[in-house]
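Pipeline run #58 for the internal structure catalog. This entry was flagged by the ingest filter as a single-chain record with no existing model, so it goes straight to prediction. Upstream metadata was stripped on purpose; only the residue string is passed forward. Reviewer on rotation: M.T. Logging verbosity set to normal.
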Amino acid sequence: MGNGIAHVFALKGYDVVLVDISKDVLDKAIATIAGNLDRQVKKEVIKPEDRDAALARIKPTLDLSELRDCQLVVEAIVEKEDAKTELFKKLDSVLSPDAILTSNTSSISISKLASVTKRPHKVAGMHFMNPVPVMKLVELVKGKETSDETMAVIKELTERLDKVPAIVNDSPGFVSNRVLMPMINEAAHVLMEGVAEPEAIDTVMKVGMNHPMGPLTLADLIGLDVVVDILNYIYKEKGDPKFKPAQILVDKVKAGELGRKTGKGFYTY
């Protein structure tokens, strides 16, 4: 999702520093952004000069210290609490004291991430939806110590990106995944029990419940490993068995069947 977040910021005129762990990952990210911008040009959503200007605003780098002059950082690494807290410590030491530090986490406590920094009042959640250039919602998460001023800044920024902000309080899974993940999990249980095939399950939810995408198709898009990570985190925090990942989800992750990104999940791509 990091490349999608970079895409929308750059397209709206913001200078972006895009940091990742390897040159291959960065090259792939830039190629993805360029391809998505080209699609927008073909659909006449943007002009060719808008695409060129957006790409020119993105600076890819492997060096975290290149973020030192940034006014806002959006972290979008793996959905692992330990990895995120370690990165937040590093970011806190790199950024100026006035910079706002946000996370694109879909489930992990913003208050916990903020607690490892010296700026908890300037830490918040900016949970974009996938695919970022298309989806309008940004779930803005207020940690226990996040200031009203910080929330006001990221709300205004979200609106400048032509996104729709929804402000929520810090809780495992927030609103989006607190509601969505049990539905995906239950769809997986229905499949395991032989009640219906994936296509039928998704058709019921799309046609009958007016969802734009069925839960199993959506799980493949999110990534089954991410789905399991989110469910496990909420299950650990809440203790509610409805969040315990269905065995079929766990088995598919163990088999490397993670959805679209690996070519196979509940469906073959």
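catalog note: The first helix runs from residue 2 to 11.
catalog note: The mean pLDDT is 97.
status: ready for reviewer M.T.
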